[in-house]
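Hi V.,

Quick status before I head out on leave. The structure for the redesign project is tokenized and pasted below; the design run finished overnight.
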């Protein structure tokens, strides 16, 4: 479902991790941020990476035949294909470092192959959760800036008499 250029399907993928890469990926994710490298993609509402725990076997131990997976999910403005292209261009070496631990990752220098790879592992949840339905990232950020500006104004004028308050309010360059 799309509303005003916002892809409501988002993008989620379950990506098998190379067995020899699990400890390195776990350490990398632990030290990833803030700020998140996904924030450089300005149309990102949010993005998450989670190294899934090993699957337990019915009896003692883990299912060794099932690889651990990296869950990648993102909500963003625009199409999923366009988002993957932005990920390759704007995250570059960090995307290579993260997804390079996964089986078959082609590398960001091949955006079309990355798109195909992610879409092969894509999960179709059937729903997407958005905290600000219908709002673009730019609109959410502007709203948050306005909120902070209003809070700042309220704190600065909390003891003002009504006429001073009105005068100061009228002078503010409200957006």
């Amino acid at each position: 479902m799309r509303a005003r250029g916002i892809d409501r399907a988002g993008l989620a993928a379950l990506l098998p991790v190379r067995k020899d890469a699990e400890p390195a990926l776990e350490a990398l994710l632990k030290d990833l941020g803030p700020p998140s490298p996904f924030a450089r993609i300005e149309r990102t509402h949010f993005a998450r990476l989670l190294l899934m725990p090993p699957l337990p076997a019915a009896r003692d131990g883990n299912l060794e035949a099932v690889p651990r997976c990296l869950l990648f999910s993102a909500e963003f403005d625009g199409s999923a294909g366009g988002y993957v292209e932005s990920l390759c261009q704007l995250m570059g070496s960090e995307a290579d470092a993260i997804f390079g631990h996964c089986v078959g990752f082609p590398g960001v220098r091949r955006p079309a192959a990355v798109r195909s790879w992610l879409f092969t592992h894509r999960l179709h949840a059937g729903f997407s959760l958005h905290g600000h339905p219908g709002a673009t990232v730019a609109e959410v950020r502007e709203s948050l800036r306005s909120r902070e500006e209003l809070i700042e104004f309220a704190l600065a004028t909390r003891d003002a008499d009504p006429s001073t308050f009105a005068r100061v309010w009228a002078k503010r360059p409200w957006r």
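Above is the designed sequence. The chain has two domains: 2-120, 137-171.

G. will cover questions while I'm gone.

Best,
W.
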